[in-house]
Amino acid sequence: MSTKVEIKGVVVDTFQRTSKSGYVTNCVVVDDADPGSKYPNPIEIEAKEPVKVSEGDKVTVEFLVNGRSWTNQEGEVRYFTSLRLASIIVTETAGPTDWKGVLAFAAKFGEDEARVRERCAALKEKLKGRKFTPEDYRAIADEIAAAHGEGEPADDEETADDDMPF
């Protein structure tokens, strides 16, 4: 029997692990320590599918805790615990703050670079010569996320758009 646990925290990492037999496990690491804590508490959770979250996203995660034992040839019993993702809800998106971040964000939703360029060019026309700020990049990310039924970015910082290819 599995135990369901819910935590709130910040996404620290997402990655895939491949076993020697070729089995791929998708993982998300969430730190549920208090913000600014001296002692982080990163919790690795396994998922069946890649998780559409970014580093810095604030999330609420439900996962199942499963334990099992294994006896080796010498008769030693070993115990293993796995945390399996049940659901993840982004409560606050870190959001991209530059062109490269928008591209990476869009790629998670399967959008190609040409479509992202169109979105950026349309916004740039509205800006009337003003440089892009992180808020503008997040607006583009919001638009992409909304088109795919996902959460919204937040925060305000100034940045230059020198590396934008349009």
Q: Could you please describe the fold and organization of this structure?
A:
The chain is α+β, with helices and mostly antiparallel strands. The chain has two domains: 3-92, Nucleic acid-binding proteins (OB fold (Dihydrolipoamide Acetyltransferase, E2P)), CATH 2.40.50.140; 94-166, no CATH class. Helix content is 23%, strand content 36%. It has three helices and five strands. It has helices at 99-107, 113-127, 134-147, and strands spanning 3-18, 24-31, 42-47, 58-71, 77-92. Strands 3-2-1-4-5 form a five-stranded antiparallel β-sheet, with no helix packed on it. Strand 4 (58-71) and strand 5 (77-92) form a beta hairpin. It is elongated and about 75 Å long.
Short summary of the structure?
The protein has three helices and five strands; from the N terminus they run E-E-E-E-E-H-H-H.
The Rg value, from CA coordinates, equals 20 Å
CATH architecture group name of the largest domain: Beta Barrel
- Give the SSE order as H and E letters: EEEEEHHH
The biggest sheet, with number of strands, parallel, antiparallel or mixed sense and barrel status, is: 5 strands, antiparallel
**Count of alpha and pi helical runs:** 3
Key attributes of the depicted protein:
alpha+beta, disordered C terminus, OB fold (Dihydrolipoamide Acetyltransferase, E2P), 166 residues, elongated, five-stranded antiparallel sheet
Topology at a glance:
Elements: E1 3-18, E2 24-31, E3 42-47, E4 58-71, E5 77-92, H1 99-107, H2 113-127, H3 134-147
Antiparallel strand pairs: 1-2, 1-4, 2-3, 4-5
